[in-house]
Amino acid sequence: MAALFRGCRIFFKRNNKHVELTLVSCRSMASKTPVGFIGLGNMGTPMARNLLKHGYPVIATDVFPESCKEFQDSGAQILDCPAEVADKADRIITMLPSSPNVIEVYTGPNGILKKVKKGTLLIDSSTIDPEVSKEMAVTAEKMGAVFMDAPVSGGVGAASLAKLTFMVGGVEEEFNAAQELLTCMGANVVYCGQVGSGQAAKICNNMLLAIGMIGTAETMNLGIRLGLDPKLLAKILNMSSGRCWSSDKYNPVPGVMEGVPSANNYQGGFGTKLMAKDLGFAQNTASSTRTPIPLGSLAHQIYRTMCAHGYSNKDFSSIFQFLREEGVQ
């Protein structure tokens, strides 16, 4: 049903005059039909909850039963696998950790594309290799479905508050249909171009984020060792030219801010191993496009070293703790 009337026009008479009516997308007309959601992790769960808050019935699944149980208690319907979700919903959002996870969820034995219906809108908010997004789009198109990449920026806090930024790549004619759902979960939904361009924007953003966080951690560590109070130093930075998101909204020093991972022993947030993964994408795309990224490459090396020293599951702002306790040779 999702694609039956897209782009159609009908005519009727009013006072003996023909009046042309352009139909809106059938997806918009049936806005409260069920939405599938696959991937109920740190980001996926609050995103899916925001869909529920906006009145969308959500049909979900995840490989971890405890995540499913928690979300089921919020009012969602839980199914056993992605294929079952695809059989019940013609709009599906995925939020997964890596490229292999996305490939498995879409094309595996119990994957979405085993039972996807023609006209289904598939929105992947994972951060993955842009080439994998392009491959998934081609495969989905063969099944009569539409695949769009829509990675996010903002972290768990923004996901909970529905203030994420979505960077969307795909067929432009489908952007409005995707935007209808994404605006329930984010404050900014930006069309970036064809499939893969959302991932390209996300990779660039996260490379800068990593570089900025390392710089903030180094600066705070130096200031503290010079005898400055960390809260005072953060205040000065945030009213001066050194201000950045990492210093102002996500400070890596314990005790400087409340409600951020550094205030909770670096638990939650955006994992170091995920940042290392994203920096690997930046490294690979820089190599393929022959683009020099000296700071991006160094950031990749630092976060990989952190993973080797037991920081994989801590938030990426734990770079401050790493510099304090481990040091970088």
TrEMBL record:
**Domain of life assignment:** Eukaryota
Q: Per the record, GO CC terms?
A: mitochondrion
Location(s) in or outside the cell: Mitochondrion
Record's keyword terms, sorted: Branched-chain amino acid catabolism, Mitochondrion, NAD, Oxidoreductase, Transit peptide
Q: SUPFAM superfamilies this protein is in?
A: 6-phosphogluconate dehydrogenase C-terminal domain-like, NAD(P)-binding Rossmann-fold domains
- Catalytic activity from the UniProt record: 3-hydroxy-2-methylpropanoate + NAD(+) = 2-methyl-3-oxopropanoate + NADH + H(+)
Query: Could you tell me which residue ranges the 6-phosphogluconate dehydrogenase NADP-binding domain spans?
Result: 35-193
**Active site (catalytic residues):** K202
Q: Pinpoint the 3-hydroxyisobutyrate dehydrogenase-like NAD-binding domain residues.
A: 196-322
Which family is annotated?
Answer: Belongs to the HIBADH-related family. 3-hydroxyisobutyrate dehydrogenase subfamily.
Pathway the protein acts in: Amino-acid degradation; L-valine degradation
Give an example GO molecular function.
NADP binding
Which BP terms does GO give this entry?
Answer: L-valine catabolic process
The EC designation for this entry is: 1.1.1.31
Record's protein name: 3-hydroxyisobutyrate dehydrogenase
The UniProt entry, under NCBIfam families, shows: HIBADH
Q: Does the keyword Ligase apply?
A: no
* Species annotation: Carassius auratus
